[in-house]
Design brief:
The structure holds 2 protein chains of 2 kinds. Chain A is mainly alpha-helical. Chain A folds into 2 domains: 100 residues, Cytochrome c-like domain (Cytochrome Bc1 Complex, Chain D, domain 2); 80 residues, Cytochrome Bc1 Complex, Chain D, domain 2, CATH 1.10.760.10. Helix content of chain A is 52%, strand content 0%. Chain A is built from 11 helices and no strands. Chain B has a single domain, classed as Neuraminidase (6 Propeller). Chain B contains 2 helices and 29 strands. Chain B has a 5-stranded mixed sheet with strand order 10-11-12-13-17, with no helix packed on it. A 4-stranded antiparallel sheet of chain B has the order 1-29-28-27, with no helix packed on it. In chain B, a hairpin with a 5-residue loop joins strand 27 and strand 28. Classes of the chains: A mainly alpha, B mainly beta. At the A-B interface, helix 1, helix 4, helix 6 and helix 10 of A face helix 1 and strand 26 of B.
């Protein structure tokens, strides 16, 4: 994304604000609810996961967290245990949880050491498939598009394979289209590269 | 349900013979080049949590002098296409949240019930003889006697296999309505941004007998029409259409089509808004062999729901004119749309102009939006309802006191 034009960067500031739907969540209430519901037991007390295949939630855009919780609650993203855990959450509670996790600093508990060959392969793929056009050049995410940096490598690989195989569909089908025909080895490289950011 | 369908859809319909071994270009990337390569434009996020009534931006709405706009219902996240029963119950389809709502009047208040959920983009809702048809992606359900069973709609009759709709998710959501001929009409969008495809299976408006037999092509070469209606006197079918992305801020316009004969070809993918699309090298050199659009509706505005005004409550000048909801652009640097316009028709049915009718949801100075109108509906009492998907709200426009 080094070729991004200054004009595009300026536009981005405007685009990021395009929706005036102000975040209605309260991070304090969200923290209390996460505590009461035991979310930290799997996702980590500060939203940074130490468990295999369980995503970190810290530092995602609040809109992404809220949308995924609604998809779980409505049974549209149907994965144990989240579909069950999201039952009964009110819209306000969803927004409070989203505000809480969005405000926490992203990071890693631990991550696999860098493998230069896989890292390089992942960097080339990320450029070719233009992950940064949607997730932003530094992959911190925006709106409905999640943060990729600070995410666990195993979970990234798992999520990318689900999009490719059509077993996960999000609020739109962009990721399914992006991942069409991407091989397992390429997914491993992309996940490694993103987790090293 | 939707597992693998998307990938299969792409493989089956998008790959040209020569490209059969390669992955097709993803829809969001098709035809992007040069400066659009670096563009950070992406679809705006949906909002799937309820917006509290006092947060709905009804105070920002503007309508012409003599009209009044108020909040009719809220708490219906993702509200999109609408249809009204003879009793005045309004049934509302959605996309991302997978629900169908029934909104009824109870003691001067509106009550919102979720009557179906867990569906993939149940955008299409249509009523006939007291039965509600819900069209989701590759799914057709019929809820019999729905009005008397709002609290317990029961298991619908599944007509999916009988209708045999294409399975693609991309542009696979439906607008649906019964025509004056008693047939069930719906769109079949094209499963890409711009591509070559089978012109007899996609980019169509089709109709069926209500018992699902006798599919007929009503309009051809129409990229994705998520709104249509019939002229109240001529009974001609009129339809909105969404133009493609990534051809520049001002190209092409979304369009309004007058379908003069059943099956008439509107030109996609070769032509859009009288513009010969250079992305498709095969096919006719000019657009003259296709029906020209009846009106241009602005670039990337996402013109969706449209209805002829058939009531008597608005001034005579609105009779048989077309209200059109424009959900608003994402593929354009300066936002466009986010309003309701009225297309003015003369006695011959020629469009003489397109005027703003309900505005205020687009903040020009800050280039941001407050809501996204998706459908319009003329109620039995002559008032006009407007659904706002972003706020999960429905506005009501009346005239006079």
């Amino acid at each position: 994304m080094a070729h991004r034009l200054p004009a595009a960067a300026a536009l981005l500031a405007a685009v990021a604000l395009a929706s005036a739907g102000a975040a209605a969540g309260d991070a304090g209430r969200g923290a209390a609810l996460a505590e009461a519901r035991g979310c930290g037991g799997c996702h980590g007390p500060q939203g940074v996961s130490a468990m295999e295949n369980i995503p970190s939630l810290a530092g995602h855009p609040d809109e992404f967290i809220a949308l995924q919780l609604i998809l779980f609650r409505e049974g549209l993203r149907d994965v144990p245990p989240m579909t069950q855990l999201a039952q009964g959450l009110t819209d306000q509670e969803v927004e409070d949880l989203a505000a809480f996790y969005a405000g926490l600093p992203a990071g890693h508990v631990e991550r696999p050491p860098r493998d230069p060959a896989r890292y390089q392969a992942g960097a080339v793929l990320a450029e070719r498939l233009r992950c940064g056009a949607c997730h932003l050049a530094d992959f911190r995410g925006r709106a409905q598009m999640p943060r990729l940096t600070g995410q666990r490598e195993d979970y990234l690989a798992h999520a990318l394979a689900e999009y490719r195989d059509g077993t996960r569909r999000g609020t739109d089908t962009n990721m399914n289209a992006v991942m069409f025909g991407v091989t397992d080895a390429e997914i491993a490289a992309l996940a490694h590269f993103m987790a090293q950011q | 349900m939707h597992r693998r369908l998307l990938a299969l859809g792409f493989a089956a319909t998008l790959a040209l013979p020569v490209l059969a071994q390669q992955a097709p270009v993803p829809a969001w990337q098709q035809s992007r080049s040069g400066s659009t390569n670096a563009s950070p434009l992406a679809p705006h996020p949906p909002k799937l949590t309820a917006t509290a009534a006092e947060q709905v931006p009804v105070a920002a709405l503007r309508v012409p002098a003599g009209f009044k706009v108020e909040l009719w219902a809220s708490g219906a996240p993702g509200a999109r296409m609408m249809t009204e029963s003879p009793n005045g119950t309004v049934f509302v389809g959605t996309r991302t949240i997978g629900r169908v709502y029934a909104i009824s009047e109870e003691g001067g208040q509106r009550r919102v019930r979720t009557i179906a959920s867990r569906l993939t983009d149940p955008n299409g809702v249509a009523l006939r003889d007291g039965n509600l048809y819900v069209i989701a992606i590759n799914r057709v359900l019929r809820f019999d006697g729905i009005e008397g069973r709002l609290d317990a709609p029961g298991t619908p009759t599944d007509l999916t296999a009988a209708f045999g709709l294409p399975t693609e998710t991309h542009h696979g959501w439906k607008f649906a309505a019964f025509g004056p001929d008693g047939r069930l009409y719906m769109n079949i969008g094209v499963p890409c941004n711009i591509c070559e495809f089978n012109r007899d299976t996609h980019a169509l408006i089709v109709s069926f007998n209500p018992d699902d037999s006798g599919r007929r092509i009503e309009a051809k070469g129409i990229r994705n029409s998520v709104g249509f209606d019939w002229h109240p006197t001529t009974r001609e079918l009129w339809a909105t259409n969404n133009g493609r992305d990534w051809a520049g801020n001002d190209t092409p316009d979304d369009t309004l089509h007058r379908i003069r004969q059943s099956g008439a070809d509107q030109g996609f993918p070769y032509c859009a808004a009288n513009w010969r699309d250079p992305a498709i090298s095969r096919g006719p050199a000019s657009c003259s062999e296709f029906s020209a659009p009846a009106a241009l509706l602005g670039p990337h505005t996402a013109a969706l729901g449209m209805r002829f005004y058939t009531g008597t409550a608005f001034p005579e000048a609105y009779r048989n004119q077309i209200f059109i909801a424009r959900r608003g652009s994402w593929n354009r640097e300066q936002l466009s749309g986010y309003d309701v316009v009225v297309a003015r028709l003369d006695a011959n049915g020629t469009v003489t102009g397109v005027e703003p009718f309900m505005t205020g949801l687009r903040d020009e100075a800050k280039n941001r939006f407050l809501g996204r109108p998706v459908d319009v509906l003329v109620r039995g009492d002559g008032s006009l309802l407007v659904s706002d998907e972003q706020n999960g709200a429905i506005y009501r426009i009346t005239h006079g006191n």
